[in-house]
Amino acid sequence: MSIRRLPENLVNQIAAGEVVERPASVVKEAVENSLDAGARSIRVTLEQGGKRLIRIEDDGKGIERDELALALASHATSKIVDLDDLEAVATLGFRGEALASIASVARLDLSSRTESVPHAWSVEARHGVISEPAPAAGAVGTRLDVRDLFYNVPARRKFLRADRTEFNHIDDLLRRLALGNGHVGFELQHDGRVVRALPPANDEHGMNRRLAAVCGDDFLAHAMPIEAAAGGMTLSGWVAEPRYNRAQADRQFFFVNGRMIRDRVVAHAVRQAFRDVLYHGRHPGFVLFFALPPDLVDVNVHPQKHEVRFRNQREAHNFIYSSLHRALADTGVGAGAPRPG
Ligand code: ADP
Ligand code: MG
């Protein structure tokens, strides 16, 4: 057995295995890039549940002509330069791997325009080869087209589900992203139809509308705003009054520094806080934004960045628990009080 270096495209395909599971993973990476680029308006266009086409268009700051190919290279990022940056990441992306991974398992076109130039430039990636930039039409911002995901990886393609199922994953994801980024407008099109249009929420009324659009009118009707701060940490958002409770944990959104995450420490703190006000087996509803200095949370622990690690778990736990506990106590619903199911 002799050891050899793998060709770059194969390396990227292997990396893609960790990041790109299905069309929704492509949408997540692309929309996070748009958000990192300061976009105020993001449109997602799909064909066949994203299996045939995923198009993301944004009005962010764009990519320079001479950096388009670099954007598609692996381990190339504009977001961190050294270990200090990695230890205090303030952007959603930082690995510089997403576009390279996607380009290795799909046909990718990237077109972008910055403010300083009169038109867009575009490149194509096919089988790991990136074309020279060509002039293209387009406003300031970026457009990414991803076609025929996994066309060259039949083993992965086989695991894609029905169009409807893949679409639902994307719709769920987009609703979560929309909740976490109220100031950004989102539009989702599927097979030629606009299926979701969420105008930017610039004030309380707008944010309430978005809350209702994502969580339902019923959630909004029972939502209590929460605002707490201590030791450099803040917790804001809404918890639903305890009499709004659900058989499923499907109205629970927790963001850490703008990132939607799953975390055991957080889940435990929330469960504890609601323990005395909810019947066993019923689930609370909440949309919570937890913010703390970026150097107090490690985001580099999961390839798809679904998890984080708090540098001081106990402090985070206690703050989340006590903030929620206080907010719930204010509702006047104590342990043992009668609650309609
Ligand atoms: P990362 O987000 O981890 O840096 P990506 O592979 O997702 O890695 O993107 C590589 C680079 O391409 C980014 O660092 C950014 O500079 C640029 N880029 C990607 N998408 C966009 C976009 N929508 N707008 C502006 N720049 C982008
Ligand atoms: Mg990225």
Automatic annotation (TrEMBL):
Residues 211-329 form the DNA mismatch repair protein S5 domain. GO terms for biological process: mismatch repair. Transmembrane segments: none annotated. One of its GO terms (molecular function) is endonuclease activity. GO terms for cellular component: mismatch repair complex. Keywords: DNA damage, DNA repair, Endonuclease, Hydrolase, Nuclease. It comes from the Bacteria. This protein is involved in the repair of mismatches in DNA. It is required for dam-dependent methyl-directed DNA mismatch repair. May act as a 'molecular matchmaker', a protein that promotes the formation of a stable complex between two or more DNA-binding proteins in an ATP-dependent manner without itself being part of a final effector complex. Belongs to the DNA mismatch repair MutL/HexB family. This is DNA mismatch repair protein MutL. It comes from Marinihelvus fidelis. The lineage of its organism: Bacteria, Pseudomonadati, Pseudomonadota, Gammaproteobacteria, Chromatiales. The chain holds residues 1 to 341 of 607 of the full protein.
